[in-house]
From TrEMBL:
Disulfide bonds join 180-191, 262-265, 313-417. The lineage of its organism: Eukaryota, Viridiplantae, Streptophyta, Embryophyta, Tracheophyta. Mn(2+) binds at residues 240, 348. Its cofactor is Mn(2+). Substrate binds at residue 138. GO terms for molecular function: alpha-1,6-mannosylglycoprotein 2-beta-N-acetylglucosaminyltransferase activity; metal ion binding. It is an enzyme of class 2 (transferase). This is Alpha-1,6-mannosyl-glycoprotein 2-beta-N-acetylglucosaminyltransferase.
Length: 429
C-alpha cells in the first residue's frame, strides 16, 4: 500500500487516539478495582482463610510496610488485621456509649475455661452496658472466639495481634528453622538470634506475652477509630481476672477522686498489687504501687508511657509488668502510685501459667473450683468520697536498677516492639 505524507500523519493521529482511549479505559478500570478492594467487607472476612485477599492487602499496606520494618505477614495475619477494622458487635443493642464511659480492654490468649468465668463475671457488672469492651487476642483460637462472639451485654470490639508469634508457624515472630535454640552459640552454629543476658535464645511462646501487651496498648490508644478520641480511662483486665459486680461503678468513683485525693496517682486499680490480698477493709482509700490486676489510666499517662518505648523494648525481661516497674515508671521521676478501694473488685484466679495454653502437651486444666465470695457489699459501690488516703510509701518489689529476668534479648524482638510504638505515628515522624 502506498503511503504519502498526509496518510502517515492521519495514521499517527489515529494511533494516538487509540492509545488515549486505551489509557483512559485502563485508568477507569484501576479506579474501580481500587475502590472495590479498599472497602472492608464482613462476608469476605467470615469466609475462612483461603481466598485471594493477600494481593489486595499488599496494595493497601505496601505504603505502610515500606516505612515500617515489620515482619512479612502470612494470610492469617493479614486477614485478622483486616478484621480488626470491623465495627463493634452489638451496636443494634447498645447504639451509644454513655458519656465519660470507661472503656474496658480484655486481653486473652488461650484459656477458654478461664475466659468463660471472666465473661460471666463481666455480664453481672453494674454499668457494663454503658461502655465498649475491647477484646485483644494473642493468637486465633476457635473456642476463645466463640465465647467472645456470644457476649450480648455491651458493645464488643475484637482485635487480633497480627504479629503474634502464635500466628507464624515457621518464620519470625514465630520460630524460624534458622533460629538459634536455647543456649546455641550463634557464630558456631550459624543460626539467627541474639541471646539474652543469661545466654538463652528467644522462645516465641514466652516473648508473645510482652509483644501482645505492647501491641494492644499501642492499638487501643492510638490505632482504633473507636478509641483514638477517648481521653479518659481505659481499664485493662486479663482472661483470668474475675470482676466483681461493683467494679465499674467503683472505678468511676476512683477516676473522679484521683485528681482530688491523690495527685501522685497515675492510675486506679480494682485490686491490691499483692494478688493474694483481698484488701484491708479499712474506711480509707489506698495508694500503692500499680498492680497488674484491673488497672486503669487515661491518655495523659499513656502518652508518658509511650514516650518510654525505647526503655520498654530494650529491657531484657519478658514480663511486661516487671519491665514497667523496673524501667518505665522509675523514669517518670516521681513515685507512681495507683488509687484503689479497701475491698478488692477484681481477683486473679488463674493457676495455670500463660505459657501453658490449651492444646499443648502440658495442657493446663485445673478444676476451676473457684472460691470467690461475692458478698452483698461487693455488689454495690463501696467507696466513700469523704475517705482519706492511706499511702504505702516503701513497698517491696522491682525497682530501678533491676536488670530483668531475661527472655527478651533478641534484637528482632526489640525491633518489632519499637515498630509497634511507631506504627500509628508515621504521619508525625
Ligand atoms: C490523667 O491522669 C493524670 C494522672 O492522674 C492526671 O494528671 C491528668 O490530668 C489526667 N488527664 C486528663 C485528661 O484527665
Amino acid at each position: 500500500m502506498a503511503t504519502n505524507g498526509k496518510g502517515r500523519i492521519k495514521e499517527a493521529a489515529f494511533r494516538r487516539l487509540v492509545f488515549v482511549i486505551l489509557v483512559t479505559l485502563l485508568g477507569a478500570f484501576l479506579v474501580v478495582f481500587l475502590l472495590r478492594t479498599s472497602s472492608v467487607s464482613d462476608s469476605v472476612i467470615k469466609e475462612g482463610y483461603g481466598s485471594s485477599e493477600s494481593l489486595q492487602m499488599t496494595f493497601k499496606y505496601s505504603d505502610r510496610t515500606e516505612r515500617l520494618n515489620l515482619p512479612i505477614q502470612n494470610e492469617l495475619s493479614i486477614r485478622l488485621e483486616k478484621r480488626n477494622q470491623l465495627p463493634p458487635r452489638n451496636l443494634d443493642l447498645f447504639p451509644k456509649l454513655a458519656k465519660d464511659s470507661i472503656v474496658i480492654a480484655l486481653y486473652v490468649h488461650n484459656r477458654p475455661q478461664y475466659l468463660k468465668v471472666v465473661v460471666d463475671s463481666l455480664s453481672r457488672v453494674e454499668g457494663i452496658s454503658e461502655t465498649l469492651l475491647i477484646v485483644s487476642h494473642d493468637g486465633y483460637f476457635e473456642e476463645i472466639n466463640r465465647i467472645i462472639e456470644g457476649i450480648k451485654f455491651c458493645q464488643v470490639k475484637q482485635i487480633f495481634a497480627p504479629y503474634s508469634p502464635h500466628l507464624f508457624e515457621s518464620s519470625f515472630p514465630g520460630v524460624s528453622p534458622t533460629d538459634c535454640k536455647n543456649k546455641d552459640g550463634a557464630d558456631k552454629k550459624k543460626c539467627e538470634g541474639t541471646p539474652d543476658q543469661y545466654g538463652n535464645h528467644r522462645s516465641p511462646k514466652i516473648v508473645s506475652l510482652k509483644h501482645h501487651w505492647w501491641w494492644m496498648m499501642n492499638t487501643v490508644w492510638d490505632g482504633l477509630k473507636e478509641t483514638h478520641q477517648h481521653l479518659g480511662h481505659i481499664l485493662f483486665i486479663e482472661e483470668d481476672h474475675f470482676i466483681y459486680p461493683n467494679a465499674y461503678r467503683n472505678l468511676q468513683l476512683l477516676a473522679q477522686l484521683k485528681p482530688l485525693k491523690c495527685p501522685d496517682c497515675y492510675a486506679a486499680n480494682l485490686a491490691p498489687s499483692d494478688v493474694k490480698s483481698r484488701g484491708e477493709r479499712w474506711e480509707s482509700l489506698i495508694a500503692e504501687r500499680m498492680g497488674n490486676v484491673g488497672y486503669a489510666f487515661n491518655r495523659t499517662v499513656w502518652k508518658k508511657i509511650h514516650r518510654k518505648a525505647k526503655e520498654f523494648c530494650a529491657f531484657d525481661d519478658y514480663n511486661w509488668d516487671i519491665t514497667m516497674w523496673a524501667t518505665v515508671y522509675p523514669s517518670f521521676g516521681a513515685p507512681v502510685y495507683s488509687l484503689r478501694g479497701p475491698r478488692t473488685s477484681a481477683v486473679h484466679f488463674g493457676k495455670c501459667g500463660l505459657h501453658q495454653g490449651q492444646g499443648e502437651k502440658e495442657a493446663c486444666i485445673d478444676d476451676s473450683s473457684l472460691n470467690i465470695k461475692v458478698e452483698d457489699i461487693d455488689k454495690v459501690p463501696n467507696i466513700k468520697p469523704d475517705w482519706g488516703v492511706h499511702v504505702y510509701k516503701k513497698q517491696a518489689g522491682y525497682q530501678a536498677g533491676f536488670r530483668g529476668w531475661g527472655g527478651w534479648g533478641d534484637k528482632r524482638d526489640c525491633q518489632l516492639c519499637l515498630e509497634f510504638a511507631r506504627m500509628y505515628h508515621l504521619g508525625s515522624i
